[in-house]
Amino acid sequence: MTMSEANKFTQDILKVAREKADSIVHEAQADSQHASDEARTAISREADSIVRGARADADAVKRRQVSEARHRVKLREQQEKDKIVEDVLEEVKKQASKLVSDDTRYIPLLTHLIESGLRELGSESALVHLNKADLKRVSSSLEQSIRKNVAHVKVEWSKEPIEAIGGALISSLDGKIRIVNTLDQRFEALEPRLLIEAKASLFGE
C-alpha cells in the first residue's frame, strides 16, 4: 500500500468514524430532546394534576368550612330556642309555686287531687302523703270535705312529708299501691305537651 493509498484509507476510516459519531450524537440529541419533551410533558401533566388537586382540596375545605359554619349557626340557634323554651317552662313552675302559696286557689285543688287519688286507689283504707307545708294545712274542714265526698274510704294521714311542690301521694296502708297526684307529677306529664305548644307559639314549629 502506497503512502497516498494509506492516507486515503485512513481518511476513509476517519470519515466513517466521524459519520458514525455524528449519527450517534444526533441520535443521542434526538433521544435527549424526546426525553426532555416527555419530561416536560409529564411535569406539565403533574403540575396540572397538582393544581387541579389543590383546587379540589381548596374547594372541599371551603365547602366543609361553610357546612361547619352553617352547622354551628344552626346549633347555636337551636340552643337559644331550647334556652327560651326552658325559661318558659321554668316560669310555669314558678306560677305553680305561686298557686301553692294562695290558699283560696290551692286548697280546692289539693282537695280534688286527694279525692281523685282515693277514688283511683279503690281501697277501703288509704294513707295520704303530703309535703311539709301541706301537712300544716290539714284541717278539720279539709278532712270533713274528703270524708263527705269519699265516704267509703277510711283516710289516714302520713306524718312523713314527701318532697313535692304540692298535691298528694295516696297509697294503700301497706304501701304496695301508690297513686301519685302531686303537682310535680302533673307538670312532668304535661311537659311534652307544654314543649310542643311553647315551640309552636314562639317559633311556629
Q: What does it look like?
A:
Helix 1 (3-100) crosses helix 5 (183-203) and helix 2 runs parallel beside helix 4 (140-149). It contains five helices and four strands, in the order H-H-E-H-H-E-E-E-H. The longest helix is centred in the first third of the chain and has 98 residues, at 3-100. The protein has a domain at 101-203: 2-Layer Sandwich (hypothetical protein PF0899 fold), CATH 3.30.2320.30. It is of the alpha+beta class.
CATH architecture of the domain at 101-203: 2-Layer Sandwich
- Quick check: average pLDDT? 78
Largest sheet properties: 4 strands, mixed
Q: Which percent range describes the beta-strand content?
A: 5-15%
Instruction: Supply the number of helical segments.
Output: 5
- Label the structural class: alpha+beta
Catalogue the unreliable spans.
none
Radius of gyration: 48 Å
The H-and-E topology, N to C, reads as HHEHHEEEH
CATH class of the domain at 101-203: Alpha Beta
Distance between the termini: 116 Å
In short:
The chain is α+β, with helices and mostly antiparallel strands and 205 residues long. It has helices at 3-100, 103-121, 132-137, 140-149, 183-203; strands at residues 125-129, 154-157, 167-171, 178-182. The radius of gyration is 48 Å and the shape is rod-shaped.
Index terms:
alpha+beta, hypothetical protein PF0899 fold, 205 residues, 4 strands
Topology diagram in text:
Layout: H1 3-100, H2 103-121, E1 125-129, H3 132-137, H4 140-149, E2 154-157, E3 167-171, E4 178-182, H5 183-203
Parallel strand pairs: 1-2
Antiparallel strand pairs: 1-3, 3-4
